[in-house]
Amino acid sequence: MHTPTTPTKLLFPAIDLRGGSVVRLTQGDYDRQTTYGDSPLDQARVFETAGSTWLHVVDLDGARSGEMEHLEQIRAICENTQLKVEVGGGVRSERAIDQLLGVGVERVIVGTAALRQWDWFTEIVQRDPYQHKVVLGLDAKDGMAAVAGWEQTTDTSAIDIAKRVNGWPLSAIVYTDIAVDGMLTGPNVQATADMAEATDVPIVASGGVGTLEHLRALRELNVQGAIIGKSLYENQFTIDQALEAFEK
Q1: Is 61 labeled as catalytic in the residue annotation?
Q2: Residue 182 and residue 27: Cα distance in Å, rounded?
Q3: pLDDT confidence of residue 226
Q4: 177 within some domain
Q5: Domain count, the chain
Q6: Structural domain includes residue 3
Q7: 240 included as an active-site residue
Q8: Residue 4 located in a structural domain
């Protein structure tokens, strides 16, 4: 019996949710939004049919409000596809983590709350129910960590935070360079490589992918995976091509 091989890298097609629709923002700017569809479940099924195993979901309304605004849409994806789903945006409490895990989410991304409530975050990721279920969302603007839907920048470098979580039972760090996000001009390969060098927590690269060559460049790094969004919605390449370039 043939056993499928596990990809050495994981591709995470992205669905960003705002007002119930599938959207993308340019450089995290809520005033620069493009809407691509009104059914997150239909979009998830497109990715699944093409062969995706993972899905990256961001609740953009939640990222601003601090509350889970799209729990039912996320539940529908988990219940009606076989995709493994990771979700971020608005996860500011243990209750929010429990809500997401309760509807079938595989792993939960904590960003703003981790940086603002470091003691809480440190304690929660060590607890049995959350070990290897929590992802640190690390967004950088000029190398400095950003919070609150990227609308505020901290005085701590993203690299320093990555070093701080070395050895922790985190599922991954999702690292986004805000300057390139949604621009399709290429990821910040050097910064991503530096991040992977700084910690033993697996890195998922996010932001800037516009071509298959960009994906191949990330594939050469010591990363767990890469997130792609706008490049798919703008038909720069197909999800099938992306999977072939990155996972195969």
Answers
A1: no
A2: 6
A3: 98
A4: yes
A5: 1
A6: no
A7: no
A8: no
Nearest Cα to Cα of residue 205 among 11, 8, 6: 11
**Catalytic entry in 61, 139, 177, 181:** 139
207: containing domain: 10-246
**Does 112 reside within a domain?**
yes
Tens-digit pLDDT profile for residues 75-104: 999 999 999 999 999 899 999 999 999 999
- How does pLDDT run across 176-235, given as a tens digit for each residue? 998 888 889 999 999 999 999 999 999 999 999 999 999 999 999 999 999 999 999 999
Task: Exactly one of 16, 61, 177, 181 is catalytic; name it.
Answer: 16
CATH number, domain of 78, equals 3.20.20.70
Q: Is the pLDDT of residue 45 over 90?
A: yes
| Residue 3 binned pLDDT confidence (cut-offs 50, 70, 90) | very low
Q: Quick one: CA dihedral 175, 215, 194, 198, positive or negative?
A: positive
